[in-house]
Design brief:
Structural class of chain A: mainly beta
Helix content of chain A: under 10%
Oligomer: heterodimer
Largest interface: A-B, 20 and 24 residues
Strand content of chain B: over 45%
Radius of gyration of chain A: 13 Å
Distance between the termini of chain B: 36 Å
Number of helices of chain A: 0
Chain lengths: ~120, ~110
């Protein structure tokens, strides 16, 4: 069965960095686009970033552009999000989600990892 | 940026009632509209893709309709397990956006 397991969250000071990982299993990882979506405590969902199956096409939300970097390692079935210059408003649960090629829906989500930015 | 406006924000419903949630897009998005259910302390789950296409494993009481700018998620005969937040999401153009969510409470 499809599994997406995020890790790497934690408490970090403003201006700090963190790297999130998403381990995928149960499907051919290299056949799918992937995305990061976040949810601030008690708030709605916000799309963060997207990467194509090969990693050649990448998009970011304006709120993270220039600070976050998405990447993937298809040999390791893993998705990453390098987060630099973190701000209090980046505090959220970060989900990785799968996107079927040539489709737009997020068909599977991980359980999420909490990132807290606070001094 | 395409803004998705969901209504209502909150609905308290009796079991077996019909629930209707609407999602209005700030510009036409064709059928590139998807619905998700998020139960407390869980990650979102895909309910409906491309406005009206059903998802394997999702109960048939969930259905979607609409195109262009106006979309509807309908839950026929609400069950206690349907207590959750529901979100619409558009994939027509970047940035990808979500509606603000509708919380459904069981009376």
């Amino acid at each position: 069965q499809v599994q997406l397991v995020e890790s790497g969250g934690g408490l970090v000071k403003p201006g700090g960095s963190l790297r999130l990982s998403c381990a995928a299993s149960g499907f051919t990882f290299s056949d799918y686009y992937m995305s990061w979506i976040r949810q601030a405590p008690g708030k709605g969902l916000e799309w963060v970033s997207y990467i194509s199956s090969s990693g050649s096409t990448i998009y970011y939300a304006d709120s993270v552009k220039g600070r976050f970097t998405i990447s993937r390692d298809n040999a390791k079935n893993s998705l990453y999000l390098q987060m630099n210059s973190l701000r209090a408003e980046d505090t959220a649960v970060y989900y990785c989600a799968r996107v079927p090629i040539y489709s737009g829906q997020f068909d599977y989500w991980g359980q999420g990892t909490l990132v807290t930015v606070s001094s | 940026e395409i803004v998705l406006t969901q209504s209502p924000d909150f609905q308290s419903v009796t079991p077996k009632e019909k629930v209707t949630i609407t999602c209005r897009a700030s510009q036409s998005i064709g059928s590139s509209l998807h619905w998700y259910q998020q139960k407390p302390d869980q990650s979102p789950k895909l309910l409906i893709k491309y406005a009206s296409q059903s998802i394997s494993g999702v109960p048939s009481r969930f259905s979607g309709s609409g195109s262009g700018t106006d979309f509807t998620l309908t839950i026929n005969s609400l069950e206690a397990e349907d207590a959750a937040a529901y979100y619409c999401h558009q994939s027509s153009s970047l940035p990808l956006t979500f509606g603000g969510g509708t919380k459904v409470e069981i009376k």
